[in-house]
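[SOLVED] Predicted holo structure with magnesium ion

Edit: marking solved, answer below. Original request kept for reference. I posted the sequence and ligand SMILES and asked for the 3D complex as structure tokens.
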Amino acid sequence: MCRTIAIVNQKGGVGKTTTAVNLAASLALAGVNILLVDADPQGNSTSGLGLEKAPPGLYDVYAGRCAVEEALRPTGVEHLSILPSTPDLLGAEIELAGGEGSSQLLKDALSPVRERFKYILIDCPPSLGILTLNALVAAEAALVPVQCEYYALEGLSMLSHTLSLVRGSYNPGLDIEGVLLTMYDPRNSLTREVEEQLRAHFGPKVYSTVIPRNITLAEAPSHGKPALLYDTRSRGAQSYLSLAKEFLSHEDGV
Amino acid sequence: MCRTIAIVNQKGGVGKTTTAVNLAASLALAGVNILLVDADPQGNSTSGLGLEKAPPGLYDVYAGRCAVEEALRPTGVEHLSILPSTPDLLGAEIELAGGEGSSQLLKDALSPVRERFKYILIDCPPSLGILTLNALVAAEAALVPVQCEYYALEGLSMLSHTLSLVRGSYNPGLDIEGVLLTMYDPRNSLTREVEEQLRAHFGPKVYSTVIPRNITLAEAPSHGKPALLYDTRSRGAQSYLSLAKEFLSHEDGV
Ligand SMILES: Nc1ncnc2c1ncn2[C@@H]1O[C@H](COP(=O)(O)OP(=O)(O)OP(=O)(O)O)[C@@H](O)[C@H]1O
Ligand SMILES: Nc1ncnc2c1ncn2[C@@H]1O[C@H](COP(=O)(O)OP(=O)(O)OP(=O)(O)O)[C@@H](O)[C@H]1O
Ligand SMILES: [Mg+2]
Ligand SMILES: [Mg+2]
């Protein structure tokens, strides 16, 4: 029984890739089979795990140049595979827009390999275009990282609106998996204000695990490793381990 | 003689809006006539200056529903006007893609009002789609904020590639106005490594002014004010004042 989760927020720089890479690695290290799909033309999840952005990647699957199995790659983490991104994915926004069935491409592409994995995590770009739409149609739920700052909070109404549009016309079962507070600094009143508003609005959907601002999370990508393999004892790595535990505890109830 | 500058970087959360709002305000407070165009559907420049995201906005101008003059609004800062964003701009990416002349819309829309302003600054979304393309076609130069971190550095080759594509087919004169280091923390080795690489690669194009990580810059937007009006003496506000001075000193040579 595979579950697909889109890691999404059109606000830029809120920790989508950092969450995708570190949550995927934490789940894989617990022995759970994971596929990470890098649906962002920037390809940060791909380089964050130390892989080249060379074809075949997601664009080649979208363009029908290869089957999805051929584009899956192992990573330096056991039980974690990646469907990498390449720079030509940038053209997909314009090439795919408006085509017949262009919102179902990822869902259809993933269906032959779904049963190999317990979870598929999709790292989305900071926009609500066709690449993110594909992820929301392929997913059962959305995990929303939110930086504890004003612009990130402001953007949530646009995101909620988009989720309900997708629910209405493409994917009636699309749920919110969880809202994750990132770059959390308890000494800072703005952080606490944003947290209060989020817990009031999203209630139990907000994870009790918060991700602190921690330099290891910013340094690990330059070594092509998740924080867990770069500096296991760091607060950043430990916070994603506890997120993985909380994430799995929600699943038990499914 | 008006100059149009696009504030652009497809990497999310690097300080595009913070730079657009605070540089625009600093130039305006020096008595220079400024128009800030919010070309991002998120509308952060619009709310960062305390304005409602209500029509008419840039989308209405693109859709031909009103002339550009009708969409310009005063802000709380003398000499600073804004062409605001509204949520329906989100649809423009899909509606405009591929249309005849769809990359020249902003350039044509701004031409009747250019001579009222000394500078037009355009705040771009974190993507390289049709909204950013319009800004790069309308602009004489691009100002690139770069967060001093690995993923932001990695994204610059994709951005440089896009700038040369635009130069080749739409706007031969498109130049780099400057590269701005943001969220700069001198105690952090990653910051110094990124700075070294940027100065080696972009040379004198990298501003000597750097923007420190400073909480005022994150707090001011929730009060709908640029940092200069929220807390003038803060390091954040002062750094944008010195950026405005450096920006103007480059112009003298034009
Ligand atoms: N908790 C954290 N502490 C410190 N730095 C962090 C943390 N989370 C992310 N970062 C750093 O902040 C920057 C933004 O994070 P990241 O790239 O993961 O966000 P994103 O939402 O994926 O961005 P984009 O919108 O461009 O896809 C990165 O340089 C990352 O290394
Ligand atoms: N120098 C700084 N010090 C502290 N916080 C900052 C600084 N610059 C920006 N910020 C904060 O960091 C976040 C990201 O900045 P901002 O929204 O300006 O980036 P952006 O590039 O416009 O993002 P997007 O890609 O979503 O458009 C915001 O919450 C902002 O308030
Ligand atoms: Mg990302
Ligand atoms: Mg912005």
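OP edit: The beta strands of chain A are 3-7, 34-38, 73-74, 80-83, 119-123, 141-147, 175-182. Thanks to everyone who chimed in.
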